[in-house]
Design brief:
Structural class: mainly alpha
Strand content: under 5%
Oligomer: single chain
Length: 92
């Protein structure tokens, strides 16, 4: 759970950094007179922005994997609890 918290913070930081840099790039492109219809595609295609999005997506995957691991441990605990209940004659 501590790892999940740390990875959640890393995810939030990478999301913040990505969005800030994306906004700067969009503003720069707009100031340069780039048509609005293609600004988003050009901004997201910028190597720096793409690298930041990759970093953000990587942190998201790690966070999701931590969440799934915790859920798997919870399920394993419930299964063990049910087995103990059956062995000791409890029906829960």
């Amino acid at each position: 759970i501590d790892t999940l918290a740390k990875n959640g913070q890393r995810l939030a930081q990478s999301e913040m950094h990505y969005r800030m840099e994306l906004a700067k790039t969009i503003l720069t492109l707009r100031a340069d007179g780039v048509p609005v219809t293609i600004i988003n595609d050009l901004a997201r295609g910028d190597p720096k922005i793409a690298a930041l999005k990759f970093d953000r997506d990587t942190h998201q995957s790690i966070y999701d994997a931590n969440t799934e691991a915790i859920n798997a441990w919870k399920l394993e605990a419930r299964i063990m609890e049910a087995q103990i209940g059956r062995e000791w004659g409890r029906t829960e």
